[in-house]
Each structure stands twice: as C-alpha cells, then as structure tokens.
Amino acid sequence: MGGHVVEYLFRQGEISKGTFRKGAHLKIMDSCGVQGVDADLLDHHSLHEAMEGVDTVYNLASPMPGEDQDHMRVNQEGLLNMLEVSAEAGVRTFVHLSTLDVCGFGGRHVTASSPPSPAGDYQKGKAAAEKLLVDLARRQSAPRVVIVRSARAVGSRDASLTVPLLRMARSGRVVLPASLPMSFTHPQDIAQAMYKAATGSSPTGSVFLVKSFDASPDELARAIIASVGGRAEVRKEGLLSKSSLPTYTAAQLRAALTIDPQPSWAGLGYAPAMDLGATCNEIAAWYRKDPWVADEA
C-alpha cells in the first residue's frame, strides 16, 4: 500500500520524505527520490526529524492482522505521538488511512453514517484511532484532520490476497471462502483519495469512504487468472477443501462488505480510476515483469 501511495504522491510533486518499517523494501522510495527517515511511532523523539518542514502528513502506519505487534498501542499511543509532533512542527493537514472493517463484519452494506462496530483487535485498534482523531478535530483547529476509510485493497504487490490467488492459480485450483459481491479498492485510488483529502477544503474531522469497484471474490479470481494468461478451477471452500488465504483476508471475503455510492465523493473530487479490468491489467503487468514474487512474497 505504502509503495503505491509514494508513487502517486511523487507524480503529484507532493512528497519529499517518508518513514518506513524496519526491514521494509525501500526501492520505491529510492526511485522516487524520497528521503527515508527511520522513525518509531512509539518513540516520540524519533518523529521530530520526520515532521520537520512537513506541510502534510499521510499516515498509513498500522500493524496488520497476524503481525506480532500491539495493535492498540500503535494505533493510539503511536498516533497520539504523531499528532503531537505534527502540531509542534506546524503541520497543516493530517490525512489518516482507515479501513471499512471498523464497521465490523456483521452487516453487508456500509454508508458514511454507519457507526464503527469493531469485533477483533485489529478493527478495535483502527476504530480507536479514528475516535482519537475525531476527538482531536473537535478540540483544536490544527492540524486539519481527514480520515479516508477504504474497502479491501487489491492490486500488485498485495501479499495477503493477490499473491495467494496467483499461487493457487499456479496449482490449477483456487479455493475461496465466499462468492458474494463486495467492495474492493486499488491502492492507486486510495492514494488519489488521500491526496484529494489533503489538497481539498473538507472540514476537519471529515470521513470519506472509498472504493474502486464491486465484484465477488470468485469473479475477481477468474479475472486475475485470465489477465496473467493462466487456467485454473475456481471453487468455493468446503469441508474437504480449505482456502490458503490468510485468516483475516478470508474473514474479509466472508463478510462481503460493500460501500453504497458516496455523495461526498463530489465534494472530495474523487472518482475511481481503477475498475476490475484495469486492476487485473495492472496486476498482470507486474506479474509478467516479476513472476517470481508469487513464490517469495
């Protein structure tokens, strides 16, 4: 996700420096001429260099499900550290990437007025981060805070859905846990929404829901397989056939959350640039260039 956002912001002339996770691959930042700053969200002092001279913060930092980190601590203490240092450094806009999953997995359709209803630790951490940001926006005028809440991301370099689908396709059989339509977002559209949120005039505390397209998981799988020139049987998960998707990704597919059309998109200036076909073409171009990534990721 971060790599796509860096590339998009670089094309807009909007990025100069970025922090990164320890051990993260830095080729994209290097190719875009972005200054890499080693910072720890839980170390208040380490963030000062990252924020120095910065006008806008695009925050994607959050442990993913399955990572051996404290979700709640990073999403609250770490976020609070960033906000405090941002205010001290004179940052004007703070754009935070959240997830549709904060609405829980109990309902299928989600709107901007749907209240957070988190279930697991990851969802609770992201919901707590949203609340912290909204509370801050009500108390003070700077920095201006905007939240982008995205549907399930899919695209090249995605190790939790795209790569497992490609691996299963190589074996000749793709097993998926659900077939109901759900909303997906390509990272380039997430980057677009975050950029529009930063450069627009939406009031502080605004929350925007974004997606690229709706498709069932099996429809997505068949389209990706066709785009890379492969052939594989796509079937639903059963008693004798289990999906090899990561646990949390499988839960997302079972929940099949969809975003209703958002009237706020016009005010944001957002319109999806990537549909199902464009997403699969982008994945295929990446896969043809580096087919080995499906084995190593």
Provide an overview of this structure.
The model has no long low-confidence stretch (mean pLDDT 88). The strands form five sheets. The chain has a four-stranded parallel beta sheet, sandwiched between helices. 41% of the residues are buried. Helix 4 (71-89) runs parallel beside helix 5 (121-139) and helix 8 (217-227) crosses helix 11. The chain has a single domain, classed as 3-Layer(aba) Sandwich (Rossmann fold). The longest helix has 19 residues, at 71-89. By secondary structure, the protein is of the alpha/beta class. It has helices at residues 2-11, 27-31, 48-51, 71-89, 121-139, 162-171, 187-199, 217-227, 247-255, 264-268, 276-289, 293-296, and strands at residues 17-19, 35-37, 56-59, 93-99, 109-110, 144-150, 152-153, 173-176, 182-185, 206-210, 213-215, 233-236, 258-259.
